[in-house]
Every structure is written in C-alpha cells, then in structure tokens.
Amino acid sequence: MSKNTGSGDTGRSLPSSIALHGALILASAISVVPLLWLVLTSLKPKDAWISSDVRFFDRPTLDNYTYVLTETSFPRWLLNSVLVAVLTMVIGVFIAASTGYAVSRYRFAGLRSILWLLLVTQMFPVAVLIVPLYNLLGSLGLINQYPGLVIAYLTVAVPFSAWMMKGYFDTIPTEIDQAGQIDGLTPFGAFYRLVLPLAKPGLAVAAFYCFITAWGEVAYATAFMTGDDHYTLAPGLQQFVSQTRAEWGWLTASAVLITIPAGAVFLAVQRHLVTGLTSGATKS
Amino acid sequence: MTVSARPETGARTRPAAARGGRRGGRDGGRPGRRSGRAGSARWYAWAMVAPVVIVMGVLVGYPLLRGVYLSLTDATEANVGRTIGMNEIPATYGFVGLDNYLEIVRNGTFWLRLGWTALWTVACVGLHVTLGLGLAMLLNRRLRFRGLYRVLLVLPWAAPAFVSTFIWRYLLNNDFGLVNGMLRATGLPAVHWLDDPTMAKVSVIVVNVWLGVAFNMVAMLGGLQSIPGELYEAARVDGASAWQQFRHITLPMLRPVSQTVILIGTIWTFNQFPVIFLLTRGGPDSATEILVTAAYRDAFTGIRDYSGAAANGLVILGLLVVMAWAYRRSLRRHGEVW
Question: Shortest Cα distance from B115 to chain A (angstroms)?
Fold first, then answer.
C-alpha cells in the first residue's frame, strides 16, 4: 500500500513543528470563526446584532430558533429543500454513475464529445439558460413544481458528478468487470454487482455534491418557485434580510438549522472525500 | 493494489487510437476487451450514457438554442407572448440580427466589467490553488490532530454557499460586523468593506477564496496521497533538497489533479453567482458586478430584457469556450488529453 505521508514526516524539529501547527491553527481559525460567529449570533436575543461592540455571549437564548420554527414558514421551506435535495441526489447519483462508468470503460464513437459535453455544460452561465429553461418547464407545466426544480438541478449536478465518477472508475481495474462477465454477468450486472460496491467512496462524493448543489442553489430556486408554500430555503431566507428589513437573528438561527443537515451529510462522507474526489489513491 | 499514479504521458494519450470497445495498452497491464464483443459493448455503453444525453439535450441543448434565438431578437418582458387567465397575448418581438451583440461590444461598461471579471477570476483561482496546495501539503504529513485540522478546514465547504455569504455580509457590516469590531478593539480605523468600491472588490475575492479553498485543498490532498512514497525516498537517497522534491516530483505528479481543478475552478469562478449577488448585489455603484451577475440583472430587474441577457450570456459562454479550448490545447502540447 502506498499510504505515504509525503516528505519529512519524522524527526521534525521543534521550531518547524510549531510553525506547522501554527499555520494550521491559523488557517483553521479563519475557516471556523465565521461559522462560530453565526452560531453565537443566533443564540443572542433578536436585536442584539445591532451592537457595535464585539460580545461573544449576550444573554444566550433560543428565542430565534423557536420563532423561526413556529412563527415563520421556515419548517415548510426546510421540508421542500430536503425533498428537492434528496430527489436530486438519488437520481443524480444514478445517472452520473452509469454515465461515468460507460465513459470510463468503453471507447466508442462520440465518447470525446460526451466528455466535452460534460465539461461544457459546466460553463453555461445561469443567465443564458434561465429564461429558456423557464419557458420550457412552463410549457411542461413544471414551473413552481418540485420535479421541475429537481430537473433543473440535475443539469447542474450531473455533469460534474459524472466526470468525477469517471475518474473514480478509471482506478478500478477492468479485470474485475471482465472476471464478472466471464462468470456470466451481463455488463450491467458486472457494473451493479461488482464495480458499484467498489466505488462506494466515489458514489458518496457524487451524492454529497448533488445534495449540496440542490441544497445551496439560489438563482433557479428564486426564479422558478413562487409563493411561501413552494419556496425552498434559498429564496425563503432572502425574505429575512430584504431591502426593507434585516432580521439577522432569525437569519442566523435558520442558517444554523440549514447547515446542520448539510454538515451531517458532509461528515458522513468526508472520510471518502479525499479518495473519491481525485482518481489516484486506493485507500478505504 | 495497483495505485495508478498515472504517469501522465502515455496513459491517456490514445483514446482516438483505442477504438471499438478496446481499451488496449493502458498502463501496459490491462488487456483489451475482445473485439468480438465490440458491438454489444457499444450498445451497453450508449444505454448507460443515454440518460445524460437526453437530459442534457433537452434541458441544456434546447434552452441554449432558444437562447441563441432570443439573443437575435428584441424580446423583453413587455413584448413576449403570455397567457393571463383566459386571455392570450401574442408575442410582438421581432428579429434584429446582431444588434444586441453590437450594442454589447460598443458599450464601455462591458469592457470594464470584462476586465474586472478577468481580474476576479485570476485572483480567486490563483489564491484557491496556491492556498489549497499549501494547506494540503501541510496536512499531508504525519502530525497530531491531522483529522481534526482536516475537518475544521473543510467546514467552509460544508455550509451552503448562500448561507456563508450571508454570514460574511454580516461579518463585514460597517457598524455591527465582527471584522470592524475587532479592528476597533485593536485601535485601528474601521474599513468600509462593502461600501468602498476598491474594498468591496477585495471583500468579494476574500469571501470567495474562503469558500473555495476547502475544495481545492481536498482535491490536492487526494492528489498528493496518490504519489508513491518511493519517489520521495529515491529522491532523498539521491540527495534532493525539499524544494527539488517539490519542484520535480510533487508538481509534475500533481498535474492531472491540478489541471482539472484549475479548469473547473476557472469556469466556476467566472460564473460565480451567489457570492457577488448576495454579498454586494454588484455594488457599490456596480463596482463588483461581473458579467454573469450583470446579465442576470438585465434578465430579472425592471422591464426584463430577455434578449439582452441572452446575448450577454452567450458572450460569456463564448469567452469560456475559447478559454477552455486554449487550455486544452496547451494540455495537449504536454501530451495530456481527455
């Protein structure tokens, strides 16, 4: 196994050890403090954010949470978002995996154009697609419907996931599929029974990516969904800090509640993130 | 276990040659599929790719063509047809040829925005990649709390971008933000992070870098871990310095990963919508407006200018395609093709 640790791993001198940990602590602090501040603000009373002195704790209370959970449409938005994100994830992973596998295993005419297609769809700016997509979904009766939003998200999430999966499948030896086919499995059978289980880390990353894409998307959700009942989180939250009001207390409380499921999914797959994202290593 | 560190020349240089279901000659050790199966293999391959082709064709291909068409007309919200209740209002917009494009090219603000978009992309991607690689190299060592550091450093990626952007808007707030609060606490003057045109540009870059470094770090870390340790051992035996090891082993072996990351990062940053839209709304005085947010604003504010937005979007797309093409060419010169 090549579980290497790069260069210079043992016998580090004390100063360089301090420098190493110092740099990592600084970087960790920069990455964590904004999120920490979010949590702290959400625990303050509703109007405590209007204060120019820095206070970490200020009469801690859960009022903001109870308010957004009981008095606003937040639970509904959350439910909508979960629904859309989970659907996007399940369908997206399925499509991305089969595409990634085909592109990785077979050399066929049109392969290169598909790889290009996957890449080029990444380039489409929201601005050029959004109006025609709106019209298209409208004529299918899918505007303001969750399936419509899911379909729109698939166009964003699938290409990158498929590309990632292709890289991952490339690292799984083709001998495995061939052995399966010799034992009488069809190519589909070899794919589902042999290769997919081996590709779990890659699948986890693709799932995570699909979920996060749907969970955090702003432009399509804002343009396609109307009405309090149909909003997902991104358009919903914009109502807390609009031109006319700024309820940072509510916003931060809901932001914490939003980040928890995303963070949970994230922590569940983060073990696989490193291995799944890039095609190189085989570590399980 | 074969750890394919994929020597980047040779392994992937022959897709054109390896036709017909064969996958011959890859890494020397993988026998190709028997050519008798080529026909059925192709059938299976298409069956697997079909969902993507269909979804993309309908949902990207059609809107794209429609966008091209709209960009050649003078469609706005006022003159496209629509149905209000029972009444159908017919569309009255017409074909105007390349007028929309000419207007863009003649417009001085377009060029200003293009310049800022380029600066924004280069700064963000440059910082993403260097900081990501730096952190990955720090983490790619045997060290205490490594797992903890990794989780903490990856957290910005775990929170949805729009949530993080909202947080930053609060953190950078003039009067009530944490950043200015800390500056004041240490006796320094407060900075107008979001209200001063120059500082607003710095702010959006900082926030985007904060959001994006984690992804780059994770990708680079994966790349670093796939480099066989034997290479470093051999280099050390030969007396190579740390810098030489970095320059002649780490960088070349990372190339497949870093190329992908740079290309994807460039595209994402160029099209980055939520950060600028939610942090500064393009302001102050559209100082931070990049091409994408400007086009979105055209399409969805005031009388919605569908045709102008479509033309803008296609100009952006064109720029990206040219960029990706140039990048791919330069890769091919190094023998890397995908």
Answer: 18
